[in-house]
């Protein structure tokens, strides 16, 4: 099987009406005419695109399955996994992605990993399950479910075990060992004769 690198751009918001409009004069729509930035195969000015890279993609009308080195970038979220199914609504608007295998997500100083993740594009909510772990700053957590929302500092962990790490302390100057107290040498006593 020949694998190839695929970079897919899916729309996180509906395409502007101008790009999808049909002209009233019966001519070719501006989008289909290949106008710069508006062609049906060219980029469209998207406000918040979902960018997905993978080794292999298989797609249909309402979903696509991506496998091998899957990487998702949306706003401030970087999400990696082994396999992903992207669900979309017309006209190719990504509504949700489901990742499995080696899930690793980073959003600012927050990190989550596990075996499965569901990401709702519209709300920006990521839910990680499958022995999930999370980290925010110097706080490490594990539980049964990790939930984080883009654009928020909030991180939720169900059935959490939390470890608060101490920040590294400033290096202190090495202390010298105190020298043993010196005593005057004692003269040996004279042996009795």
Structural features, described:
The chain is mostly beta strands. It contains one helix and 13 strands. The chain has one helix at residues 17-20, and strands spanning 6-10, 50-54, 56-59, 63-74, 77-89, 93-107, 110-120, 125-129, 133-136, 139-142, 145-149, 155-158, 161-164. Strands 1, 2, 3, 4, 5, 6, 7, 8, 9, 10, 11, 12 and 13 form a 13-stranded antiparallel β-sheet that branches. 20% of the residues are buried.
Helix content: under 10%
Let me know the average pLDDT. 75
- Number of helical stretches of at least 4 residues: 1
Number of distinct beta strands: 13
Low-confidence stretches: 1-44
The geometry reads as elongated
Short recap of the structure:
The chain has 193 residues and is mainly beta. The protein contains 1 helix and 13 strands. Strands 1, 2, 3, 4, 5, 6, 7, 8, 9, 10, 11, 12 and 13 form a 13-stranded antiparallel β-sheet that branches.
Attribute tags:
47% strand; 193 residues; disordered N terminus; mainly beta; 13-stranded antiparallel beta sheet
């Amino acid at each position: 099987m020949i694998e190839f690198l695929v970079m897919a751009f899916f729309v996180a918001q509906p395409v502007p009406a101008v790009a999808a409009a049909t002209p009233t004069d019966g001519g070719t729509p501006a989008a289909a005419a290949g106008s710069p930035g508006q062609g049906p195969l060219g980029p469209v000015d998207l406000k918040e695109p979902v960018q997905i890279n993978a080794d292999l993609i298989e797609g249909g009308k309402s979903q696509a399955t991506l496998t091998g080195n899957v990487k998702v970038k949306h706003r401030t979220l970087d999400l990696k996994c082994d396999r992903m199914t992207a669900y979309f609504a017309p006209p190719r608007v990504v509504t949700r992605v489901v990742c499995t295998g080696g899930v690793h997500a980073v959003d600012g100083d927050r990190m989550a990993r596990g075996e499965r993740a569901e990401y709702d594009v519209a709300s920006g909510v990521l839910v990680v399950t499958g022995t999930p772990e999370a980290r925010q700053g110097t706080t490490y957590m594990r539980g049964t479910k990790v939930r984080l929302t883009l654009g928020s500092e909030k991180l939720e962990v169900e059935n959490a075990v939390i470890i608060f790490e101490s920040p590294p302390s400033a290096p202190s100057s090495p202390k010298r060992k105190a020298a043993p107290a010196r005593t005057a040498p004692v003269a040996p006593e004279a042996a009795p004769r």
